[in-house]
Amino acid sequence: PKAIRLQDYRPPAHLIDTVDLQFELGEEVTTVRSTLGIRRNPDRPDAAGLPLTLDGQRLDLVSVALDGTPVAPDRYTVTADHLTVDQVPECFSLETVVRIKPQENTALEGLYKSSGNFCTQCEAEGFRKITYFIDRPDVMARYATTITAEKARYPVLLSNGNLVASGEHEDGRHWARWEDPFPKPCYLFALVAGNLRHAEDHFRTFSGREVTLRIYVEPGNEDKVDHAMRSLKKSMRWDEEVYGLEYDLDIFNIVAVGDFNMGAMENKSLNVFNTKYILAKPETATDNDFLGIESVVAHEYFHNWTGNRVTCRDWFQLSLKEGLTVFRDQEFSSDMNSRAVKRIADVQGLRTVQFQEDAGAMAHPVRPDSYVEINNFYTPTVYNKGAEVIRMIHTLLGPEGFRKGMDLYFQRHDGQAVTCDDFVAAMADASGVDLSQFQLWYRQAGTPDLSVATAYDEAARTYRLTIRQTVPPTPGQPDKQPMHIPVVVGLLGPDGADLPLRLTGEAAPAGTSRLLHVRKAEEVFEFVDVPARPVPSILRGFSAPVKVKADVSDADLTFLMANDSDAFNRWEAGQILGGRILLGLVADQQAGRLLDLPQSYVDAVGAVLRDADADPAFAAQALVLPTEAYLGTQMDVVDPEAIHTVREFARKTLAARLRPDWLATYRRHAGNQSFSVEADAIGRRALKNLCLAYLMALEDEEALSLCLGQYHGATAMTDVIASLQFLSNSNAPQRDEVLAGFYERWKGEPLVVDKWFGVQAMSYRPDALERVTELLKHPAFEIRNPNKVYALIGGFANGNPVRFHDATGSGYRFLADQVLRLDPMNPQVAARMMGPFSRLRRYDAARQALMKAQLERIVATPGLSPDVFEVASKSLE
Ligand code: DPP
Ligand code: ZN
Predict the structure, then answer these.
(1) I want to staple 533 with a disulfide (CB 3.0 to 4.6 A). Which of 112, 152, 456, 683 is the partner?
(2) Which biological process annotations from GO are given for this protein (predicted)?
(3) Distance (Å, whole) CA 621 – CA 742
(4) Residue 725: its pLDDT value, please?
(5) Among residues 840, 847, 843, 820, which one has the least CA distance to residue 831?
C-alpha cells in the first residue's frame, strides 16, 4: 500500500452535480442503479480529454451507459478500485448498475446489515463500496434516493433530506423516494431500511421552522430514547443561542444500530448512531453513558454546520470539522453541566490517550501530511488535540472575536469544501489577531514541553517567570520550530487570594488571570508591584495542550490545592503533587527501597476529602490519583508493574489512614435520593463511589459488606457497575457468584453485557488474561460486533496496563492473535486495537522485543489490510 500525501492534492478532474440512486434491497443481492450528472471541472483546464475515473470497490458491475446509450466494453476498464471511462464529453450523464451483498459486509463500511436491518456508513471512503463515484469530499452533489424493499421485513425506509414520494408494489415490496436539497459530499450519504420503532418530538427554530425529530430504534428499546431526544433539543437551542446557527430542514432523523465501528455519524438529516450513544435509562446506563449521549448527540447535530454545510476539501483537513465540532460539543456540555468537571475530564482524556499517541510511532500533526489508510487517522490527535487548537484560538481571540470569526467562516464558505487554513484565515481576518505562527499547531506533531522558572525579588518587588519551550522530535519531523503558546497565569498572595497583575511597562494592573504569549524558545515575563513572594498558578484552565515542568514546591502545590481560584488548576495542583510523589515511589520500588507515603500528602488529600461536600463532583475528580497511563507518560521508560504496585500502595495507604473520612463521606452520600442526571446528583454518586473504591482497596469486612450491599440494593447502573467493578478486582468469596448473577440479570441488554465484559477485562487480578480468553468463547461475545471487541479486547489492551504488559509477553501474543483474527472481517476495528503496539518504544528492551516479535508476525501475514499494515509497519520503524 502506498502513502497518499497532502502536497499531491489536486482538484478533481470531473465534478458531479446530481446523483440519482435507486436501491433494490434484497436478501441475496442488492442492486444499485446510479445516474450521475457529470461535467469537467473548470478549475482543471488540463483535464480536457482525460478519461473519467470513478472509485469503486467490491462492486459487481452490471452495466454502464452514457447519456442513455450503453458504453461499449472496450471504452471502459474495471480494476479492483476503479471504473475508467474513455472519451467522455464535457458534460454528460453516466448510469451504472452494480450488485452488492450487504449481508456479507462485516467491515461495516458501505451498506451493511445490523440485526437484520440495512444501514450505511460512508465516512471516510465507504460510498465507493455502494456504487461507482468520485469518492472525495470536494465533490459535492444533490442526491435523490429511491429505496425499494420487502415491506414486511423493512417497513421503515430512510435516506437524507425530505421524503417526496412513496408507494407499494403488488408483490409485497414498497418504496420511498428521498431528496436532499443541500449539495453534499458522498461521505454524508445515508440509507436505512428496517423494522424500527421511533420516538417523535418537535423543535421550533428561531425563525419559526417546525422541525420533526425522530429517533429510530429496534423494537424493545423505545423506553431508552428520552435522554437522547432531550439532548438533541438542547443542542439545537444551544447552537442558535451561542452561534446563531439554525437547523435547515423540516426533518431530523437519528437511527441507532448495534453494529457500528465508531460512535456515530453526522449524515445530512439522517444521523446513524451506535446504540451506545442513544439508549439509556437509569437502570441500564451509567452517568458517564448519559453524559456521553448528551455530548455525542450534540456533536453530530453540530456537524450540520461544522462539517456538512462547510465541509473538508480533503481528508487531511479532517480536524477542520472534527476538532471544531469536538470543541463545540465540549462547550455545550460545559454549559449543560459543570464546566470545571468537564474540563478536568477532557484534559484527563487528552493527557492519557492523545499524549500517548503523540509519543508513539503513530504520532502525527493535527493536519497529517500523509496517510496510507485514512481510517487510521480518526484519532485523539485530530479530534481532541484538534479541539484544543480551536480552544487556543478561542483564548487568543476572546469569545467575541471567536464568534466574529465563526460568522465570517460561514459567510465565506457556506456550501464549500475547505481547508484548515481557510478556517484560520477567517478567524484572523475577523479579529485582526495574527495567527501566522499559531498555524504551526496544525503542522507540527508532538506535545510541547514547557519549563517554567520563577524568581521573586523582594527588594524590587518583582516576580519573574522564565518560560522555555521545546517540541520533541516525532516520526518524519526531527526538528521543530517554536510554537505560539497561550499560557494563562495567575499569582496567589499569602492569603490565597489572586493578586492584581501588572507586567513591566504597564501603567496599571489589569485582571488577576493573564494571557501570556509564549512565541520564542525562551520568554521572560516580569510582574511588578508584587508585595510578597506569590505562588504561581500556571496554565490556568489548561490553556494549551503542553506538558509543564515548573519549579513549584510541594508546599506551594498544597497551597494551590486549597486556594487556587481556577478550579482546573486546583485539581491540577493535586495531580502534579500526586504524580511527583508516586513517581518518586516508583523509583523507590525499582531500587528495592521500602515504600512510604509522606504524611503531608495524606493530610493534603484528607483536607480535600473533608471539604468534599462543598463540591462533590469536583472532589470526586480531585481525590483520584493520577492514572497508571498518565504516570507512564511522565516516565522515560514506562514500568507498568512498578506503576501499578505503587499506585495500589498509595490507594491502600490513603484508604487506611483516612478510613473514617472515606466511610463518613460514603455514608453521607449513599442515602436514597431519587435519581436524576443533573450535574449535582452525578457528582454525589461519583464521590460516593470513589469513597467506596478507597474502602474496597482495604478489602476488609465492613467495606465488603458495604460494597455487596450497594451491589444488591442499587437501582442505578452507575452504582451497580461501580460495586461490581470493585468486587471484580477483589478476592471476595462472593465474586464469581456476583459476576454470574449480573450476567443472568442483564443478558438481554447487549450494552449492559458490554460493561460486564469490560469490568472483567480491566480487572487487575493476575488471572485477568485467563478470564478474558475464556470470555472470548462466551455465547454473548461476538467478534463481529465492534462494541464487544472494544469492551473485551480493547478493555484488556488499553484499560489494563499491568496485565496487558505482563513480562512474559502473554498479553502481546493475545492481542496479535485477536488483531489477526479481526483483520479479515473488520480492518478498521482490527487496526484500532493496535494502539498499545504503536507505543512499544516507551517500554524496556525486553518488552520492546516481545512486542516487535508480535508485530513482525502480523506484518508477515499474507493479505493484511492497509489499515493494520500501516500501524504495524510504522510501529516497527
Ligand atoms: N464523523 C464522525 C464523527 O466524528 C465519525 N465518523 O462524528
Ligand atoms: Zn465528528
Answers:
(1) 456
(2) proteolysis
(3) 28
(4) 98
(5) 820
The CB of 300 under 6 Å from ligand 1? The reply is yes
> What is residue 674's predicted lDDT score, i.e. its pLDDT?
83
Nearest-CA residue for atom 5 of ligand 1: 265
Cα-to-chain-centroid distance, residue 552: 33
User: Is the CB of residue 513 less than 8 Å from the CB of residue 566?
Assistant: yes
Cell numbers describing residue 651: 490507594
pLDDT attached to residue 628: 97
DSSP per-residue string spanning 803-851: HHT-TTSHHHHHHHHHHHHHTTT-HHHHHHTTGGGGGGGGS-HHHHHHH
Report the atom number in ligand 1 closest to the C-alpha of 296. 7
Give ipTM to 2 decimals: 0.98
Strand pairing category for 60-66 and 522-527: unpaired
Between the CA of 325 and the centroid of ligand 1 the distance, in Å, is 10
Question: What is the DSSP-derived secondary structure letter of residue 306?
Answer: B
The confidence score (pLDDT) of residue 672 equals 64
Which mutation among 322, 375, 384 tests ligand 1's pocket best, with the greatest number of atoms within 8 A of CB? 322
Say whether 777 sits in a helix, a strand or coil: coil
Percent of the chain with pLDDT over 90: 99
| C-beta 322 within 6 A of ligand 1 | yes
Residue 28 φ then ψ, to 5°: -90, -45
Q: Which atom of ligand 1 is nearest to the CA of 123?
A: 6
Active centre residues (catalytic): 300
Residues 6+ apart with CB under 8 A from 876: 361, 852, 855, 856, 859
Q: Which CATH class for the 548-698 domain?
A: mainly alpha
Q: Name the 3-class secondary structure at 675.
A: coil
Give the model's pLDDT for residue 142.
Answer: 98
Cβ partners under 8 Å of residue 742, min gap 6: 720, 724, 756
Question: Contact, 326 vs 295, CB < 8 A?
Answer: no
Which stretches of the chain score pLDDT less than 70? Answer: 672
Q: In this structure, which ligand is nearest to the CA of 375?
A: 1
Q: 265: CA distance to ligand 1 center in Å?
A: 5
Look at ligand 1, atom 3, and give the residue with the nearest C-alpha.
Answer: 265
Tell me which CATH code domain 449-544 carries. Answer: 2.60.40.1840
Instruction: Please report the pLDDT score of residue 673 as a whole number.
Output: 73
Ligand nearest to the CA of 263: 1
Name the 3-class secondary structure at 641. helix
Most distant CA pair in the chain, distance = 96
Does ligand 1 have an atom closer than 6 angstroms to the CB of 95?
A: no
Report how far ligand 1's centroid is from the alpha carbon of 566 (Å). Answer: 32
Span from the CA of 274 to the centroid of ligand 1 (angstroms): 11
Q: Are 587 and 645 in contact (CB under 8 A)?
A: no
CA-closest residue to ligand 1 atom 2: 265
Nearest to 444 by CA among 405, 409, 406, 485: 485
Substitution site in 108, 109, 121, 123 for ligand 1 pocket (most atoms within 8 Å of beta carbon):
123
Architecture per CATH, 311-443: Orthogonal Bundle (1.10)
- Is any atom of ligand 1 closer than 6 Å to the C-beta of 874? no
pLDDT digits (tens, 9 = 90+) for 97-148: 999 999 999 999 999 999 999 999 999 999 999 999 999 999 999 999 999 9
Ligand 1 pocket, mutate which of 378, 383, 828, 829 (most atoms under 8 A from CB): 378
* pTM for the predicted model, two decimal places: 0.99
Q: What is the pLDDT of residue 405?
A: 99
User: Using CA positions, which residue lies closest to atom 7 of ligand 1?
Assistant: 265
Distance 453 CA to ligand 2 centre (A): 39
DSSP 850-872: HHHHHHHHHHTSTT--HHHHHHH
Closest Cα to atom 1 of ligand 1: 265
For the chain, what is the mean pLDDT? 98
Using alpha carbons, select from 510, 487, 488 the residue that is nearest to residue 499: 510
